[in-house]
Write a structure and sequence with these properties.
The structure is a homodimer.
Chain A: H1 12-25, E1 31-32, H2 37-40, E2 48-53, E3 58-62, E4 68-69, H3 74-94, H4 122-129, H5 137-152, E5 157-158, H6 160-169, H7 171-182, H8 190-201, E6 203-205, H9 207-218, H10 233-246, H11 252-258, E7 263-265, E8 270-275, E9 279-284, E10 287-288, H12 295-307, E11 323-328, H13 340-349, E12 353-362, H14 364-376, E13 383-394, H15 396-411, E14 415-419, H16 425-435, H17 439-442, E15 444-446, H18 449-462, H19 487-493, E16 498-502, E17 507-509, E18 517-523, E19 526-529, E20 537-541, E21 546-547, H20 549-554, E22 561-564, E23 568-574, H21 575-584, H22 586-613
Parallel strand pairs in A: 12-13, 13-14, 14-15
Antiparallel strand pairs in A: 1-10, 2-3, 2-9, 4-6, 5-6, 7-8, 8-9, 11-12, 16-23, 17-22, 18-21, 18-23, 19-20, 19-22
Helix pairs in contact in A: 1-12, 3-4, 3-10, 4-7, 4-8, 5-8, 5-9, 6-8, 7-8, 14-15, 15-16, 21-22
């Protein structure tokens, strides 16, 4: 089939965007902005569409690399920086968040407070520009440009020609600046602030940049391509809110109703639209409608919303698939290989040990089902392991809930463990803050489930009649393979056993080696690892057990490394001696093979049981 | 530890709501509505809070079972019914969707069109009431009441006293009715329409009802407790949009900015708030602010938004965890037990078989990563299995994408299978529509992965040198357990084999029975099932293989049923005869035990490999 694959398969999403581009390109309505000569130079046929997912997948079609000035799309971006610099409260004192039916360039201030109605009209944007921190006008604009570059994931530049043109013709905006100064919504000389505003509007971007900037807002302020934070997560909702209600000039209600994607347009023809948590959209087409929105830009957003079901109020439900897996210590055990008796005990005792593997983003609605399920079964619970390996993020609300769960279960003397949580520093910080002095004892974490399971199992097995001291030393009569041998038979086999001692850390078996012997452990513990994966223990053996018998039996090369975890004493039996037993003492060999079969049967039953956990 | 559990553990969410209730109960600001005497009778201290997740978990505190009239909260519910009856376009001709700064009861119609600005002000709500289908006023109100009851999940009733009171004093609303008639926004006599409006406002609900109604909107229109649809999913976004921008009278921008939860209040003190896909909130407290919103109702929404990070624009990201598991046919195989040679072949050939297990809600943003990953590896792919067992829902956009993926891969002669998709009828419908005549051949589904994997494996193995015809008949010399026996040894063992034949469907082994024999299959196939789980096949055996040896070896009772899938011929060997072999012919028994060990070793290695898929 390879001969068909000369041309790579094109994603249906790419196909869809190309069709959409073709369809919307036929729409020649609207006029290129002409209020400054530089904008009038734009080719009215330029048309690019770029869709970027919150995971960083980029789809683009048309003139997505053509540079143009960002214009009013700078407003929400600068508003975010102003929020970071001043907080929500101080920012709201200078600029409101109410939609207005007035034109974008009206000098419309709230009659009572003198506040511009919102940061998306020019008056509000100029007041916002005045909130940017920095010692000099130059350092303030430098911060703005750096922020924009973080959003776009590349170094953006000022278009000097457009800036000069804006500045030369910007009397109306200067008037707004003075009006704001009059109402104390600007401090000091308004001139540098209006210049800053002209500059922020004159930053040069491409349609692709807009798509990535939008995706950064969709991704909680983190650019999904660079992984760098452009806006603190807590302010993303504020920026999107003003875009949602005031972004497309008039028509706040209709835009949200029909398109349902918070968006901002600019007079150079750009549109940036954000579906939180999902995708970012950039469109560029310079022909504008009478309100100053790109005609094709609006059309593209409408079509995307309709055909891809992308409406804000139609987002996929969350919360029903946070629990990826739930099992008990009776169904699934650590890789610490237990004796037959211990295994039987765990099949009973393990029921009080519950493991929940969580996934996705932990927020209130996604964490609630976990609490509900754990608490409903809490009476029968003694150990809880929360495996966060597949959790992508956690917010404060989810952190609170997990802390409360921990505190409640501990108050009932139930043990709680978190595994795989190094990638979620917020959880540790919140636990530290809330648990205070109790933190070290209460927030118990393990790098993986295996070690956490082992600890719980050891607690469960500790007081059973099969429990053994860690100093337990097995004699050949205790080796499970020799279980059915008579004393006389043991005396025959004993001379074939070659004692070996290994220091802790010694590699007893190396993956890839030929298998010429089986080992019987008399003292200490050995661990099994795949080469190069020393953090993940495949098995742990205790005195009385044999190891290395799989390759011994089927003649395959050793498949894993086996390492002495403590100082170890063991006996080895060579394949040659074992084979010779068939001739010299068949009854002994039969008993040994029967025990090996039994042992393998037990292991296979356990593996099958564990596989059924994942069904 | 059971002695501590006399009192059940209370959820931290319940704790949080109780604290919140206590805190907000201290706020005695606002006045009970008095414009009709019935409302003035409310106890100003009544206060209930109810939070219901989109999954149907209910948390409630305070006076959540106190009945009161729904008042303006009826507006979005009736608007949804009007959309179902008339579609979006016809509805928009009668009522706009723009927020207005006017008071809720103003007679404010758009000067151009005569349309009420939005359905949340009285004029818009009365125009909406006029859009409800039905032959008589009584049948129209019956439909309204039935719809409300579907939302609440119980039979709601009209409060006749409040209705009469509303009707007697409702001159302003009657004036609005006539004004609407004047602008042709109402047809026929406006009187029955205003009466309908008075009635819809006088439906009696509890705070708990509001929570459940809100959760119904959060759950795409399906009541999460009853599972019944109250509003068609496609109109939920429209209802939430008008709530989002026009729901809380004035302050559209600030509400979305500060609280970010679409909401609607009523003058009896109710508030219904919806976080799409996540939770519904009902609050009841009769003291109102000057705008007619419940003071504590607003406070509760603000606190929930702040403390639980519930802002609309701060929803947990989707799309990054749609792929729950991905493995190839080299890592994981069907339960059709293969010979050693076939297994070795599959470890190579199986690489072209990819299985993706998906989870959660499939929409554009959650399906895109699947397409991206599959297409990136498409050149090396021959068989694709999409396992939808854990997919909770699929929307049209995702259906389109999956259809395009299927069409593209089929055009390259790659086979695509869907498993576990009976719970997603939309997928089948869309495939049927889009594939047309090709449907039956192209949309191939299997009830589970096992059968799909088996089919692909059989294709892969078909032309290998180890492939066997389905009519293959094994002789004792072919039984893998006798592989190492000489002809002379075979002659010794043969008389111990007791031939048996079974008709297709016969249960050869029953779970729970004592195990006194092992079977060797000479012709046909047998399947292994757990009792009561006949849809899920644990294993399938072919001629030459043995079955029933685990219990035979370890003496445990049979753990599963084994059923003849075709007419079957096999040989059985009793445990007694096998044991006696140790005395009479130890060399034969050793060879057989060695083969059993080898067989078990192979199965254990396979199980361990498959377990590692789930790591």
């Amino acid at each position: 089939m390879k001969n068909n694959s000369a041309s790579a398969l094109v994603s249906p999403i790419q196909d869809f965007l190309e069709e959409l581009h073709h369809k919307c390109a036929a729409d020649n309505g609207g006029q290129v902005a002409t209020y400054i000569p530089e904008l009038a130079k734009a080719d009215p046929d330029w048309f690019g569409v770029c869709l970027v997912t919150a995971n960083g997948a980029v789809y683009e079609v048309g003139d997505t690399r053509q540079e143009f000035t960002i214009q009013s799309i700078s407003k929400p971006i600068v508003y975010g920086l102003a929020l970071e610099d001043n907080g929500r409260k101080a920012t709201l004192e200078k600029v409101g968040v109410e939609p207005t039916g007035d034109a974008f360039n009206s000098i419309s201030l709230d009659p009572g407070s003198g506040r511009p109605r919102n940061p998306m009209i020019n008056a509000g944007a100029i007041a916002t520009a005045g909130l940017i921190a920095g010692k000099t006008p130059a350092s303030r604009f430098k911060r703005v440009l750096e922020t924009f570059s973080l959003y776009a994931g590349r170094e953006l530049k000022l278009d000097e020609t457009v800036y000069r043109s804006e500045s030369e013709t910007g009397h109306r905006n200067r008037a707004i600046g003075h009006m704001l100064r009059n109402f104390d919504k600007l401090e000091g000389d308004p001139a540098p602030v209006t210049e800053m505003y002209f500059k922020q509007c004159s930053i040069s971007v491409t349609c692709r940049d807009l798509g990535i900037m939008a995706a950064t807002l969709a991704n909680h302020g983190i650019n999904p391509l660079t992984g760098r934070q452009a806006l603190r997560g807590e302010y993303v909702e504020s920026v999107l809110s003003v875009m949602g209600t005031c972004g497309m000039y008039d028509y706040a209600g209709e835009w949200l109703y029909n398109v349902g994607i918070p968006a901002k347009s600019g007079v150079a023809g750009g549109v940036l639209a954000v579906l939180p948590g999902q995708i970012g959209i950039g469109v560029f087409s310079p022909r504008l409608d009478p309100l100053g929105n790109s005609v094709r830009g609006i059309r593209v957003c409408q079509e995307l919303s309709r055909h891809l079901d992308l409406h804000l109020f139609n987002s996929p439900a969350t919360g029903q698939s946070t629990i990826r897996l739930n099992f008990t210590g009776a169904d699934f055990n650590s890789n610490h290989v237990r004796t037959k008796e211990e295994s039987a005990d765990l099949r009973e005792l393990g029921k009080v040990l519950q493991v929940y593997q969580l996934q996705g983003h932990l927020a209130f609605a996604t964490t609630e089902p976990v609490l509900r399920e754990v608490l409903a079964a809490a009476d029968d619970l003694q150990f809880l392991i929360l495996d966060l390996k597949r959790v992508l993020s956690i917010n404060e609300s989810a952190g609170h809930l997990l802390h409360s769960l921990l505190a409640k279960l501990r108050a009932r003397h139930k043990a709680v463990f978190f595994t795989h949580c190094d990638h979620l520093p917020l959880l540790r910080r919140m636990m530290k803050k809330k648990l205070g002095e109790k933190f070290a004892g209460a927030f118990v974490t393990y790098p993986d489930n295996d070690l956490a399971l082992e600890w719980c199992e050891s607690c469960l097995l500790e007081h059973t009649r099969h429990s053994r001291a860690s100093s337990y030393r097995a004699k050949p009569a205790d080796y499970h393979i020799f279980k059915e041998l008579t004393e006389a038979e043991l005396k025959i086999i004993q001379p074939l056993l070659q004692p070996r001692t290994f220091k802790a850390g010694h590699k007893i078996i190396s993956a890839g080696d030929a298998a010429r012997e089986v080992f019987f452990l008399s003292r200490g513990n050995v661990n099994v690892y795949l080469p190069g994966e020393e953090r993940h223990r495949l098995a742990r053996f205790s005195p009385g057990m044999s190891f290395g018998e799989l390759a011994f039996l089927d003649g395959a090369p050793r498949s894993a490394n086996i390492v002495a975890d403590t100082d170890v004493e063991c006996d080895l039996l060579t394949l040659a001696d074992f084979q010779a037993l068939g001739e010299s003492h068949p009854a002994i060999k039969i008993k040994m093979l029967e025990q090996l079969c039994l042992d393998l049967t037990g292991k296979l039953r356990k593996a099958n049981r564990e596989l059924s956990v994942f069904e």
